[in-house]
C-alpha cells in the first residue's frame, strides 16, 4: 500500500508540474464549423483585422495551424488554432488559449472558478464562430471533378497583391483593359479570367494575370501595360463558386482538399473565369465563377 501511495503521489506531482509549467495552454475551446479548413483559415485572418491585435495571424507549420496574439487591457492572449478536417464540409476547430503574462495564475484558478480570462476567451471565440457562420452562408463551392481548362488567347495585366486584394486588383484594371480593347475594336472571346502564376499560402500573397480572352488580330493595342499570351488546354480539377468574388479563393482550398483526398497531384496555380459583373449588384450567391486547379502533367 505504501508503495502504491508513493507511486500515486509521484504521478500526481508529475501531472501537476506538467499542468502548471509545461502545458502550453491555460484554457481550450473546441467547436465544429460546417465548412472546409481553408475557409476557416482565411476567416480567422480577416476576423483578426477587426480586433485589437498587435500582430497579423501567423502561419504555423501549415494552413491547419495558426498563431494569433490579441491584446485585452494589460494582458496579451495567445490563441493557437488547430483546424481538423472531418469531411468535405465539416471541420473541428481546437483553440488553445494562453495569457502571456498571467498563465500560471490562470492555470491555478481555472479548475475552481469561472474566471474573467475564461469568460473573455469564450466571448472572443463565440464572436469568431458568428463570423465564420455568417461567412459560410454567403458562398457555395461545388466540386465538378476533372475537366479541361479552356484554351484562350488573353489580353492581360500582371498583378501582385494579397489574396484578399485580388478582386480589387481585378476591378482596378477591368475598365482600363476593356476601354483599350474597345478603342482598338478588338473582339472579345469570353468572360474575364484570372490566371494565378504564384501562390504563397504562408504569406497569403499571389501573383496573377487578369484580363479578357480575345480573338487575336492585328488591331491589338501595343506599347501599353497590356500583355498577351495563350492559355493552353490542360486537365484540371474544376469547381463552381457562387458568392462575392473577393472570396473566390475559398474554392482553391476546396479543390486542394479534394485533390489530397483523391491522391491527385496538382499545381497551386488556379485559373478563374468570372461570369458576372459585380458593378451590376444583385444577390451575390447568384454570382458564378468557374475555378480550375491544374493537374500536374506527370500525373497523366
Q: Can you identify the CATH superfamily of the largest domain?
A: Regulatory factor, effector binding domain
Q: On the 0-100 scale, what is the average pLDDT?
A: 90
- Binned strand content: 35-45%
Instruction: Give the strand line-up of the largest sheet.
Output: 6-11-13-12-8-9-7-10
The ordered H/E elements are: HEHEEEEHHEEHEEEEHEE
Principal-axis shape = elongated
Q: Which structural class do the helices and strands define? A: alpha+beta
Largest sheet geometry: 8 strands, antiparallel
How far apart lie the N and C ends?
A: 68 Å
| Count, helices | 6
Looking at the overall shape, the CATH architecture of the largest domain is Alpha-Beta Barrel
Q: Determine and state the CATH class of the largest domain.
A: Alpha Beta
Structure, described:
- The chain is an alpha+beta fold.
- The chain has two domains: 21-137, TATA-Binding Protein; 141-299, Multidrug-efflux Transporter 1 Regulator Bmrr, Chain A (Alpha-Beta Barrel), CATH 3.20.80.10.
- 30% of the residues lie in helices and 36% in strands.
- The chain is built from six helices and 13 strands.
- The longest helix has 21 residues, at 2-22.
- It starts with a helix and ends in a 6-residue tail after the last strand.
- Residues 142-296 form the AraC effector-binding domain.
List the main descriptive attributes of the protein structure presented here.
13 strands; 300 residues; TATA-Binding Protein; 2 domains; alpha+beta; five-stranded antiparallel β-sheet; Multidrug-efflux Transporter 1 Regulator Bmrr, Chain A; 6 helices
